[in-house]
Amino acid sequence: MTRRSALLLFGARLRGQPAPEFAPAMREIETAVDGVLGAAALELKSGRLAGWRSKDRFPLLEMTQLPVALHAFAQMELGEMPFRKMVSLEPGAYSPGFSPLRDRYPEGAVVTVGQLLEAAVRDNDASASDMLLELGRGPEAVRQRMARWFGEGIRVDRSLAALDAAFRLAASRERFLMDERDTAAPEALVMLLSAIEGGQLLHEASRKRMRQWLRATPHGAGRIRPELGDALVYHKSGSTAFWDGRNVCMSVAGVAELPAGRGRLALAVFLKGTERDLTQRERALATASGVLYRWFAALPEK
C-alpha cells in the first residue's frame, strides 16, 4: 500500500463529532481572551474526531516546520536529500525570525541536513526550516506533497523569512489573517500528527528521530502541559509578534496518552487576534487542550 492510499483510507475512517458538550467551554475561553480559537483532536485507536472551528484556517507560522520537516524526511528516504549531506550556511541566508543557529554561528557554518532537521523540529529554528525548504525545491514542492497526503488542509506557500516580510508589509492585520496562504485547519494538523504517530508517513528510523526531537523541544510546554501533565507525550508550538496591540496567532499541537490504555490522542489548538499577554494566551491554549483531552477521556471506549 502506498503512503497516499494509506492516508486516504485513514482519512476516510475519521468520524466527526458535533461535541456540543464542550462548545460552551470554548466560547468561554474566547470571551476571556477576546480572540478566536480553533481546535481539533483525534483519538487514534477509534478514529473519533472532534473540534471547535476545526475546519477554519489559522496561520501556521513556526508550525510550518512540521510539514517542511516531513517533506525533507520523505526526500531523504527517496535518496534525494541524504541525512548526512553537508550544507553551507552563509550569514546572508539566515532568516530574521527565531534562530539559535544564526545566534550560535553569526559568521556562518557548515552543518548536515540532519542537524537542520533537528534544529527546525526541536528548536523552532527559522533559518534551519528555510534552508530545508530551499533544499527541498521550495514551498511549491512541500505544498504539493501536503496536498497529496492531507488535501488542502495544510498550505506552505512561503519561507518563514518571506512570511515575516509579508507580515510587516501587509496593509492591516485583518488582511494578513484573511490570506489563506501558509495556513492550516486544526483537523488537518491533527491528521498530520496521527499519521506520524501511526507510521503512515515515515520509515521507523525517521519517525523515531522526529518523535525524539518533539519530546525534547524546550518551547511552548506552558501552552499544553499544565492541563495534560504526564499524559503529554510530545508537542510542537508556533507563534508570532504583536501587531497594533494584537497577537496575530499562537498555537500548540501534540500527542497525549489517554487513560486506561485507551491509546493516544492527537490534538491541535490555535488562538488568533487577542490583545492578551503571553501568560494569558498560553493559559487559554492549555485550557482548550485540557477541555478536548477530558472530553475524549470521558467517552466510552469503542
Question: Can you walk me through this structure?
Answer:
- The chain is α+β, with helices and mostly antiparallel strands.
- It has one domain: DD-peptidase/beta-lactamase superfamily (Beta-lactamase, 3-Layer(aba) Sandwich), CATH 3.40.710.10.
- The protein is built from 13 helices and 11 strands.
- The protein has helices at 3-12, 23-33, 65-77, 100-104, 113-123, 126-135, 138-150, 160-169, 173-178, 186-198, 204-216, 225-228, 278-298, and strands spanning 15-17, 36-43, 48-52, 58-59, 86-89, 109-112, 183-184, 232-239, 242-243, 246-257, 264-274.
- Strands 1, 2, 3, 8, 9, 10 and 11 form a 7-stranded mixed β-sheet that branches. Strands 4-7 form a two-stranded antiparallel ribbon. Strands 5-6 form a two-stranded antiparallel ribbon.
- Strand 9 (242-243) and strand 10 (246-257) form a beta hairpin.
- The radius of gyration is 18 Å and the shape is globular.
